Amino acid sequence: MRGRGDTEIKTNQFKYVLAYLFFSVPTTNNKQPITNNQHIMRINDAVPQKGSRKRRRRVGRGISAGQGASCGFGMRGQKSRSGRGTRPGFEGGQMPLYRRIPKLKHFTVINPKHYTTINVGKLASLSENTEVTLASLMDAGLVTADDGPLKILGDGELTVPLTVKAAAFTTGARNKIEAAGGSCEVIEV
After folding, report:
1. 3 state DSSP class of 116
2. What is the rounded CA–CA span in Å between residue 98 and residue 89?
3. Which pLDDT belongs to residue 85?
4. Residue 187 and which of 11, 26, 128, 146 are 20 to 30 A apart at CA?
5. Angle formed at CA 125 by CA 176 and CA 139, multiple of 5 degrees
6. Domain range summary for the chain, segments of one domain joined by +
């Protein structure tokens, strides 16, 4: 019958044999023998920097431990109970920010520009080389209300050359007026 000591001796001998086989001639990457000021990196050398890891806080282990009794959560209230205090975004019943802001697309424009609009198709009824302004359109009865500066839109066809003075033009409207031989002049408002 073998005793426990025999097993320990054989295990230790095995360790020494392994150490001799693997570490008898230590070398670096360039196959040069390691000198006294160099050493092989081993798994037990891979430890965190001293002072970089802090021990975990053990709460509820008496007042001498620093976080006894209420464990740093104060006396009473919802935030001292077990479980979550309140859900993210909760503002105590007040309408929360994520519900106060618009849901889709973009914020509404605070000061939108309002224009009096007319399509180039309605300008076709004017005579050739007429100067078109907001006042002349109201006199002709093509525009009935002054809702702001004049803007020319591009719906319809135009065949007569006109000199149009307006605050804004769409690209299609500008192309149709110039194709008919007219001119577009932007008036600053």
Report:
1. strand
2. 7
3. 87
4. 128
5. 110
6. 116-186
What is the token pair recorded at 130? 């007429």
Mean pLDDT of the chain: 84
Can you spell out the DSSP letters for 47-113?
Answer: -PPTTSS-PPP--SS-GGGSS-TTTTS-SSSGGGSSS-SS-TT--TTS--HHHHS-SSS-PPPSS--
Q: How many helices (H) and strands (E) does the chain have?
A: 5, 6
Type of residue at 92 = G
Could you say which of 3.100.10.10, 3.30.420.40, 1.10.3720.10, 3.30.1950.10 is the CATH number of the domain covering 116-186? 3.100.10.10
CB atoms under 10 Å from CB of 25, counted, come to 7
pTM of the model: 0.47
Residue whose tokens read 């697309």: 105
